[in-house]
Amino acid sequence: MNAEKETQFVQALTTVPPVSKARLWTGRILSALPALFLLMDGIMKVMKPYFVVKATVELGYPENVIFGLGIAVLICVILYIIPYTSVVGAILLTGYLGGAVASHLRHGDPLFSHVLSPVYFAILLWGGLYLREPRLSALVPFRK
After folding, report:
1. pLDDT digits (tens, 9 = 90+) for 18-71
2. For residue 99, how many other CB atoms are within 10 A of its CB?
């Protein structure tokens, strides 16, 4: 009897219903907003204009890590944009955004405008991915 239940469970996880066009496009739009912002963040860190260097140094990071942070976030965003690697990209971006929360918290920035803004982006990242990725919504069902 247990083997039968396990087989049903595996079949439920492997058979994923397709996503509707409206849900897919809503997910793409929700995903695009934070992805574009983080893409711009990575490009600006690679280019290192004065205001980016100043802001990063004010948060307590040495100037020589800015380029590496930019490359890291660009790689994570590219992974997030590619459908096949989007879950890995979302996980990595969640880590990056968690570091941003810690940096702003340590710096003593205002809670809702600075400290929690990376959390807002993470919610958009995962919400958009949940809507456009049927395997994720099958893994984390909010309703039955």
Report:
1. 889 999 999 999 999 999 999 999 999 999 999 999 999 999 999 999 999 999
2. 13
In sequence order, which residues have a C-beta less than 8 Å from that of residue 144 and are 6 or more positions away?
Answer: none
Is it the case that residue 81 has pLDDT exceeding 60?
yes
Can you say how many angstroms the Cα of residue 37 is from the centroid of all Cα atoms in its chain?
A: 11
Residue 12 and residue 134: Cα distance in Å, rounded?
12
Burial class (CB in 10 A: 0-12, 13-18, 19+), 26: middle
Measured distance CA(138)–CA(86) in Å, rounded: 16
- Residue 15 identity (one-letter amino acid): T
